[in-house]
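pasting input
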Amino acid sequence: MAVITTATTNKIQKYFMNFKHKFVFLFPGLFVLIGILIFPIIFTIRLSLSGWNSYTPEMNFIGITNYIRLFTDDPRFWESFFRLSFLSVSTVILQYIIGFALALMVWKEIKFKRFFRVIFLIPMMTTPVIMTVIWRTFFHESLGPVNDLLGHIGIGPILWLSDPVIAKFTVIIVEVWQWTPFMFLLLLAGLLSLPKEPFLAAAIDGASPLRKFVYVTFPLMAPISIGAIIIRLIEASKIMDTVFVLTSGGPGTATETSSFYIYIKGLREFQMGYAATLSFTYLVIMIISLTIIAKVLTKLMIKE
Amino acid sequence: MEKLYTFLKYTFITLWTVFIVAPFLWAVSTSFKDFQSVNSKVTYIPWLDFEPTLEGWRVLVKSPARGGVDIVEPYFNSIFVTCTASLVSIVLGTLAAYALSRFTFKAGFVRNNDITFFFISQRIMPPIVLSIPFFIFLSTIGLLDSLLGLVVVYIVLLMPIAVWIMVDFFNRVPKELDETALIDGCNPYQAFYKVVLPNSIPGLIVAGMFCIIFGWIDFFFAFILTFTEVQLLPVKVVALNSSITPWWSLSASALISVAPLIIVAFVVERYLSKGNLSGALK
């Protein structure tokens, strides 16, 4: 081990600050990412100002006509957006509560701890669309096991996929199954990294488990919780695979989310220009609302 | 009180385990059924409720010409795309993460945190927003319906994950490590390659696993950007879902597609229990 004098340390500190080659590390990744993304983003903005559709597949310029149409004459988009907000917020809240509960349960020594941890992790490793294909047979209204088993205890067939209200809950069930493990993983990793001292102090004070949770565990976990919730919200806002396979947005438009609506407009009806308008507006709304949610959550959960 | 709590805890854990395992059990059972046992009434247990057949599994290895579902090629396509994109993302992401964790960047109002946020924020981008321009972009340069095109798109999906995990990880690797290496006469590249990297293997494994998971489970881009030449596994399986839906081969192909990553669950758990993950995920 070399002896580090103050002079050398300063020199190295400076070296870290002014190191010319730092760009060699940063730029490959940055430029690849920008290089791949810059075209699609500029193209989307330009496309949103055009009337590109299947009759006139060309980049003409029609000004903000598309935006006027979106803001004055397209309730279906805004409905799909509120539906998306409802679905993503409710699934993330459920995932947080269940994931936190599960993480707390397998945090300390219990029987078969490692077995349960593996089981709890498995759904996030499985491909959502593929599992949704299975869920579709699972919730099949006449040939699926759920309605069959419920039938045995006298509950009549539930229209899991064809009732506009219940279909939403079916989507939530599948989403919770799929992504609670991710929340569980982030929260458990957080719990395992907590310092021991506060818990020792609480134990010496003889705090009950509930008080320990409210005054020690939860505050310590707040920053990790916020991170996990925001990561999950970002991912949940992209809900699409599940809806696509499970209900195709139906019945009617009962489970249609923004992504799915844009998909229909753009790649089924080939109204590329209008779909680009929707995409761009949607992206801007997403960025603004996620930033606000992040700020509000931080205010709510971290008390000085 | 204590007893009630323990009772509730185990009840909850058991119920949740049943909920998680149920679709898998159903799929395993269904994969051994034939037309009769799927469509007459709901059946569960082989031999007791229905006579199991291997038809659902046999179809998977038959060629399409003989009424089979060729799942082997999509399987290798998926492995290729996921691994290549993960590898590129990890290499570029790790380099960028090292730079962001060790050096100070200043350009106008842009600081290190802003650059890190830029990387990570790419996850916000909904796939649909990217898929339409990518569709036109790739068809212009002739990469639509090709493996290379998909790899390019997947890099955008995966690099944010690599940067996110590795920045946090490098922040936890003490700077003294680099400093000692520099004092011992390494140049910065050697310090990174010979000293920091070997000490970051847990982080690299976690980042790699996450890239592989999120690459493997993606459906939407593969669905939009490929048609017949190249098919990835999820697209193939979902395509089975379309017409008459043979539930048995559907279940068999679903099970075989999700199987490889379940092994990853065991690896993640191992790292979790050893405490390596706690530093890497936060």
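fyi DSSP finds 13 helices and no strands in chain A.
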